[in-house]
C-alpha cells in the first residue's frame, strides 16, 4: 500500500516534469521575445545574454506605436484590411458554395468536390508566376486588392470543405419543415443554416484570417510600395535597416501575433470539440 | 428532398458561381498558363518581349545540378520535418490522453507555435540563434557544454538545414498533436484493458490498439504535411538564405533571376509530381475538412 502510494507520487512527479519540459520547449521563443521586448538596446545584444531584463523599459512599445519612429501601425492597418476583407469574403462565398455541395442535388457535384480537393492541396508557390502576370495584366499590381483576391482563393477551398462538413450535420428535416412554412432556399441559408453552423463559420473565419495574416509570398510579389506593405513583408524589409532594433522588433513580433492568438483563444472558447480544422498551408 | 435533383441545378450553380469562377480564374487558368509560359523565355519586365524557346526551359532545368540538388534537399527536409513533427505530435497526444489539472490550458499553450505568424517566430529564432549574442549558443557552450564552439547557425548550409528542420518540427507538431488527441479520445478504453488482461506490454498495446485506431488520421497528416512542406517557402526563406529548398529555388528563378519562363517550367514539373501524389493518396486520405 505504502509503496504503491509512493509509486503513484513518483509517477505524478515524472508526469509533471515531462509536462514542464514540453512547455519550456514550446514556449521558450515566446519567452525570449517577450523579455527582449523589455530590454534596452544595449542589453539585447550583450554577448552574455540575460533571461530577464536588468533594466525594464517600455520604450519599444511606445516606439512601435509612434508613426514618426516606426511604420508598424501602417503595416498593421494594411494587414488588418487585407485579412479581414479576405476572411469575410471567403466565409461568405464559402457559405453559398458549401450549402450547394452539402444540401442540393445536381449533376457535376462530385466533379466540383474533387476539383476543390485538388485545389486545396495545390500550393500557392506553383501559381506565383502566372498570378503575377494576371495581376499585372489586370492593372492590380501594387494594390491591396490583388492580395485580398489572392487570399480569398487561397482559403476558399478549405472554407468550403470545412463549412460543408458543418452543414452536413444539420438535418434535412429542419429544412423541409422550413419550406413547408414558406421559406425559400436563400432564406433558409440565412435563417437556419448560418445560425446553426455559427461555431463552424467562426472557425472558418479564423482560419482564413490566419492564412491571410501570415502570408509573405504573395505580399512580396504583388506589393512594391511600402505604403501598401503588410506586417510580414514590412517587418522583414526592416530587418536590414537602421530602424532595426531587437527590442522593437520583438515588441512588433508580439503585437503581430496578438490578433491571431486572441482569435484562436476566443474561437476555442466558442467551439466545442477541437480545432483540427484546416492546416496552415505554406 | 432526394428527388428534387433537377430543380436544384439552377440554384446550385448560382450559389457555386462565385467559388467556381474565382477558382477557375485564379487557380485553373494560371495552372494552364504555367504550361504556356514554360515554353517561353519571359522576363519580368512586361515591356520586354517573350521569345518562344520550345523545350529549352525544361532541358535547362532537368540538367541543372542546382535543381536536382534543391529537389534532394527539399525531400530530405520534408521527410525529417514530417517524421519529427508527426512522431512528436503523437507522443505528446498520448502523453495528454489522460485527465490532469491544467490540461486545457497546457493544450492551448502548446498550440501557440502553430497559430503564431511565421514572421514573429522567425524573428525570435533568428535572435535566439544569433552567433554573437544568441541565448542558444550561450546555453549550449557556457551552461550545458553541448559544444565547444557554437556553430555559426545561419552561415553554413548544414547548420542552417538543421535549424530549418528543427523550426518546422517545433512549429508543426501541435497540428499533429491536436489531430491525434482528438482521435485518441474516441478510442474505447476497454480495448486497452482487454489488452492488459492478455498481458500486453506497453509497446504491444501501442502497436495493436493505438496504431490501428489512429491509422486514418496518421495517413492524412503525413500526406498533407508532406505536400505542404514539400512546397514550403515562407518559413525557410525568412529564416536563412543558406537552404535552397525547391520553393525558394522557384521563387528566386522568377523574381531574383528574372526568368519567369524557367520558373513556370519548374511549376509544371512540380505539378506533375504533385498530381502523382494526389492520385496515389486520393483513396487513402479521408478528406472531410479536418485537414
Automatic annotation (TrEMBL), chain A:
The keyword Transport applies. The chain crosses the membrane at residues 13-35, 80-102, 114-135, 147-167, 188-210, 245-266. Keywords: Cell membrane, Membrane, Transmembrane, Transmembrane helix, Transport. Gene3D superfamilies: MetI-like. Its main location: membrane. Pfam families: BPD_transp_1 (PF00528). One of its GO terms (biological process) is transmembrane transport. It is found in: Cell membrane. The keyword Lipid metabolism does not apply. Belongs to the binding-protein-dependent transport system permease family. This is Sugar ABC transporter permease. The lineage of its organism: Bacteria, Bacillati, Bacillota, Bacilli, Bacillales.
TrEMBL record, chain B:
GO terms for biological process: transmembrane transport. The keyword Transmembrane helix applies. GO terms for cellular component: plasma membrane. It holds the Pfam family BPD_transp_1. The keyword Transmembrane applies. The chain crosses the membrane at residues 12-32, 75-96, 108-128, 161-184, 213-233, 260-280. Residues 71-281 form the ABC transmembrane type-1 domain. It is a multi-pass membrane protein. PROSITE patterns: ABC_TM1 (PS50928). Gene3D superfamilies: MetI-like. Its main location: membrane. It is found in: Cell membrane. Keywords: Cell membrane, Membrane, Transmembrane, Transmembrane helix, Transport. Belongs to the binding-protein-dependent transport system permease family. PANTHER family: ARABINOOLIGOSACCHARIDES TRANSPORT SYSTEM PERMEASE PROTEIN ARAP, BLL4140 PROTEIN. This is Sugar ABC transporter permease. It comes from Peribacillus muralis. The lineage of its organism: Bacteria, Bacillati, Bacillota, Bacilli, Bacillales.
